[in-house]
Amino acid sequence: MLVWAGSRGSAPEEYVARVLPAPDAPSSPSESAGPPPPQRIVPGVRFVRAPDPAKQRRARELRRLAEAEALADQQFSFRVSSFNILGHGHTTARGNKPGYADGPQRMRWAIDIMNGAGISVAGLQEYETPQHQVLVSTPGWEVFPGLQLGNPALANSIVWRSEVWELVEGHTIDIPYFGGAPKPMPYALLRHRESGREVWFANFHNPASTRGPAGHLRAEATRRETELAARLTADGTPLVLTGDMNDKADFFCTMTRGAPMRAANGGSTGSTCSLPPDPRIDWIMGSLDITFSDYAADRGGLVARTTDHPFVHATATVG
């Protein structure tokens, strides 16, 4: 007969199986006078409780909060850009901007411009496959989503210097574009390698009215972007938001009233909404724990040969 010997009082519990004589085994005086038959010991079996998924998630959350608190006082700075690089399709023989060089050549110039300004992370707009092929063949740059999620998500990719940042997680959100068709646009959590701090980056391109009135679509796009900004910053993680919003006051006032955000080029929101001086449709925004300096919107020189938009850039300081 098998019986279990052991204690349930500690974790993990441990039980040992032994074989005992059957209780109804026949006995006789001669048998009872001799030694008992030898007993065979069965190897012990260890039982370990399966981990509780909820407790594991909670433990990870507590570790992340502890790490965030430990890192919260570590101030660091980086250079960021919002850069509409003029899609390759606009500059082909059939495009509406045929006077520009082709997309691959202009992408090489765009990389030179970003490198020259010390940019370590940028939100690109009108980023098409021929331009993407140039960037991914250039050492030191990484991208999300690129072509990982298919061509529709490519156009507004986030790019960064791999020696400065590493990708933690990447997502997309559907934003209404021409005709109201949903277009996936990215937001990604990057970890700053030197400091260990994590920052959200989101990048958008809201529809222009070049294919019919699109003010209502931009309003809905801005509403979704503002809601996302409020959600991403709710736990104290910094956020940088870039994009060609094709709007000035409507975008700025909605974003700064609906989420804890500021523009890299100034402005304020209180009883009234005051736009930054010389506002543009290309924006760099940051959560309130980010301060900006050295803001510029360059149009001349190589920028003018590369795109029909300014090269918008600034220094962001977290902490």
Query: Strand order of the main beta sheet, please?
Result: 6-7-5-4-17-16
CATH superfamily of the largest domain: Endonuclease/exonuclease/phosphatase
Top-tier CATH class of the largest domain: Alpha Beta
Question: Could you give the distance between the termini?
Answer: 69 Å
Spell out the helices and strands N to C: EEHEHEHEHEEEEEHEHEEEEEHE
Using the CA coordinates, give the radius of gyration. 31 Å
Features:
Deoxyribonuclease I, Chain A; 25% helix; 17 strands; disordered N terminus; 6-stranded mixed sheet; 2 domains; elongated
Question: How would you sum up this structure, described in words?
Answer:
This protein has helices at 29-33, 53-71, 103-116, 129-136, 215-233, 249-258, 302-306, and strands spanning 2-7, 14-19, 45-46, 76-84, 121-125, 141-144, 158-161, 165-176, 182-192, 198-205, 239-244, 261-263, 268-269, 273-274, 282-287, 290-298, 311-318. With 319 residues, the protein is an alpha+beta fold. It folds into 2 domains: 2-49, no CATH class; 76-318, 4-Layer Sandwich (Deoxyribonuclease I, Chain A), CATH 3.60.10. The strands form 4 sheets. The protein has a 6-stranded mixed β-sheet with strand order 6-7-5-4-17-16, with no helix packed on it. The chain has a 6-stranded mixed β-sheet with strand order 8-9-10-11-15-12, with helices on one face. Helix 5 links the parallel strand 10 and strand 11 (239-244). Helix 3 (103-116) packs across helix 4 (129-136) and helix 5 packs parallel to helix 6. The termini are far apart.
